[in-house]
Structures are given as C-alpha cells and as structure tokens.
Amino acid sequence: MRALIQRVSRAAVHIDGKQTAAIGRGQLILLGVQKGDSEIQAEALAAKACKLRIFEDDAGKMNLSVGDIKGSLLIVSQFTLAGDTSRGNRPGFETAEKPERADKLYRYFVKCCADRGIPVATGIFQADMQVELVNDGPVTFLLEK
Questions:
Q1: Is 78 an annotated catalytic residue?
Q2: Catalytic residue among 55, 79, 109, 122
Q3: How far apart are CA 75 and CA 79, in angstroms?
C-alpha cells in the first residue's frame, strides 16, 4: 500500500464539473492499493499518515501533525501508484489490487483516519476525478507499508 501525501493549504475533487469534496489546510492523500495489501497495512499507514509531523510549529520546524493543527484530510484512491514503470514506456498495473478488494481497503483506510478524530473528505472510487490542490511548501512524502 502506498500513500502519496501532500501538505496543502486547500484541495478539492471535481467530478463532471461539480465539486464533490474539498478541504482547507491539511493533507491530500493519494492512496494506492496493491495485491497482497491487508487491513493491517491500512491501519499502520493511516496511523503514520495522521501522526506525520509535516506542519510547521512556531519555530518554523516541521513538528506538528494534521491533528495538531486541526486540519483535514482529502483521501483519493489512486491505482496508478501501483504502476510499474520499470519496463518500456507504458506502465503496467499487474501489482494493483482488483477493484472490489481495493475499494474495501480504501474505505477501511478512510475509516482508520476518521477514527482518529480528523475530518476526512474523499474522492469517489473509480470515478474520473479532477483533483485540484495548492501544495504548501511544496511538501510531499511517499509512504509505503
């Protein structure tokens, strides 16, 4: 399971020209579910993402988590994070989990984050989405479990 986490001042999801989800300051999390991933990995990744200290404190150091700043999460399923680009120029997706199981683990990851008391907005699984964001910093991390 992979999560691309971006510190944002705002982010939104649009589907068919309509905004369906939005957050202010917080994290945009693009989540990729791979074959063999489990609820154990989803729990561990959610814990890490929610505790990740990537927001600046009064001294200007990355020392605060999204919960510390009372921020929000926008979590979007992103199967292309499971893409393999090691051969040729066209990515392969053999390592991406099948949609039914990926959706279940995506929803479980969202629940694990929400259970930590952090406001969560989401994209819509398998929808054609346009994701708009203002990356604050820019600050971006790739987490894998």
A1: yes
A2: 79
A3: 13
Annotated catalytic residue: which of 80, 85, 126, 130? Answer: 80
Give pLDDT tens digits for 55-82: 999 999 999 999 999 999 999 999 999 9
In the chain, pLDDT over 70 holds for what percent of residues? 100
The mean pLDDT value for 122-135 works out to 96
Contacts 24+ apart (CB under 8 A), 107-113: 108/39, 108/42, 108/43, 109/1, 109/31, 109/42, 109/45, 109/46, 109/75, 110/75, 112/42, 112/43, 112/46, 112/47, 113/29, 113/46, 113/49, 113/50, 113/73, 113/75
**Residue 122 known to be catalytic:** no
The 10s digit of each residue's pLDDT in 19-31 is 999 999 999 999 9
Q: Can you list the domains of the chain with their CATH numbers?
A: 2-137 (3.50.80.10)
Whether 85 is catalytic = no
